[in-house]
From TrEMBL:
It catalyses: H(+)(in) = H(+)(out). The lineage of its organism: Eukaryota, Metazoa, Chordata, Craniata, Vertebrata. This is Stimulator of interferon genes protein. Keywords: Endoplasmic reticulum, Membrane, Nucleotide-binding, Transmembrane, Transmembrane helix. It comes from Seriola lalandi dorsalis. Belongs to the STING family. Signal peptide: none annotated.
Length: 414
């Protein structure tokens, strides 16, 4: 289980609700302090602060709405309704409007918290206008953590699109046929490959963190040798008749020189991430690429775990690039996963041999459930001293007998 712990230490978990809990705690402490110091002005202060916080985004939303309606209403929204679509995307949603309205009503009922009424309205409008200015200049823009949280929550990352494309365009098509392809391969290569490990019946998908993929595995590790290709899968796809999908079989040599056959390949979408990081126009550096690789792994793992047709036909292997100095790191990682899969499977024992029991000497005196007779005495077997085994019956099943009516009927009686 070491490899699972190593992967859990690398893969980022989805962000939780800790910021919300911290914000609620700070708000509760601040409100409690205000109640202790000046409880008579609590509702007025709360109402004015809510108005300041909500009026600023509303004014900034109006600025965004002006841009969208003047230049993008036809190209981006295709004549969609103003209230149902354009206003919410500009930040003028119902929640913000409702909060501002309730805060204004509360301020009117509670009275102005400042000594002079004019000071209260001046503070409200000045804070809202300055918020709009700083927001437009990017001073109050969302942080990178907020942008990342939004993109992950709404599945807007590059990794999410690549993971879904890899699944829908490739894995969903080939994984259900993998077992039949391996069976056909074993039938035609029985002489040269007499043993095929249990763990190698899955497609091993390599996901390196640096996304630098070699087109030939033997170029990265001399303990890996290309053996042969599985039978091709011809699928009609996107107007192409008989599009060919294939997998390659490799022989992985361990430290003792024993070869292990398996179907292994890299996740091809990682080539896209690597090429994007090499293009300056993509705005995609090495730190962003590494983060997207981890999100790709997490998204693909979640997709495949919920896919019934792909279940038990794959194995994702996350390769850490911190061990590039080891020339046999790739083969060791593959062998470690193969050995782990073999240990997780259960091996049924062979069918037990039937023991011939000699007939009893006096069957008429022996009850049907009597123990066997040994040396003229009834022998009671000792409790079970070995592991239980499955008992198989070699007799053919007999047909069920039809019910026979044996009830006596008396006719003529009233």
């Amino acid at each position: 289980m070491q490899c699972h712990r190593d992967q859990d230490a690398l893969i980022p978990r989805p962000r939780g609700n800790l910021p919300k809990v911290c914000a609620a705690t700070l708000a509760a402490i601040t409100i409690a302090a205000i109640v202790f110091l000046s409880p008579e002005r609590l509702f007025g202060w709360v109402a004015m602060v809510i108005l300041i916080v909500t009026l600023g985004p509303l004014l900034h939303g109006l600025c965004l709405l002006a841009e969208e309606m003047l230049y993008h209403s036809n190209t981006r929204y295709r004549g969609q309704r103003l209230l149902s679509h354009v206003l919410p995307v500009c930040g003028l949603g119902g929640k913000t409007l409702l909060a501002a309205g309730l805060a204004g009503l509360l301020l009117y009922l509670a009275g102005h918290p400042l000594p002079h009424e004019g000071q209260c309205w001046k503070l409200l409008f000045l804070a809202s206008v300055l918020y709009t200015l700083f927001k437009s200049l990017g001073v109050l823009g969302p942080s990178e953590v907020e942008v990342s949280d939004i993109c992950e929550g709404r599945k807007m990352n590059v990794a999410h699109g690549l993971a879904w494309s890899f699944y829908l365009g490739y894995l969903q098509l080939v994984l259900p046929c993998l077992e039949d392809s391996i069976a056909s391969f074993r039938a035609t290569h029985q002489a040269s490959s007499p043993f095929w490990g249990r763990g190698s019946r899955k497609l091993l998908i390599l996901i390196p963190l640096n996304s630098n993929i070699s087109h030939k595995l033997e170029d990265e590790d001399d303990n890996i040798r290309f053996y042969d290709n599985l039978p091709n899968n011809n699928i009609d796809r996107a107007g192409v008749r008989g599009r060919v999908y294939k997998h390659s079989v490799y022989r992985i040599q361990d430290e003792r020189g024993k070869a292990h056959e398996c179907v292994v390949e890299y996740a091809t979408p990682l080539l896209t991430l690597y090429k994007m990081s090499q293009q300056s126009s993509a705005g995609f550096g090495e730190p962003e690429r590494r983060q997207q690789v981890l999100l790709f792994y997490r998204t693909l793992q979640d997709i495949l775990e919920h896919s019934l047709e792909c279940r038990n036909h794959y194995k994702l292997i996350l390769l850490n690039d911190e061990h590039e100095d080891d020339p046999h790191f790739l083969s060791k990682a593959i062998l470690r996963h193969l050995q782990q899969q073999e240990k997780e499977e259960f091996c049924l024992p062979p069918p037990p041999q039937q023991e011939m029991v000699h007939p009893l000497a006096n069957t008429s005196r022996a009850p049907p459930s009597a123990p066997p007779l040994m040396n003229g005495e009834w022998h009671h077997p000792e409790p079970m001293s070995r592991e239980p085994t499955l008992m198989y019956s070699l007799e053919e099943p007999l047909p069920l007998k039809e019910p026979v009516e044996d009830t006596d009927y008396y006719h003529g009686q009233t």
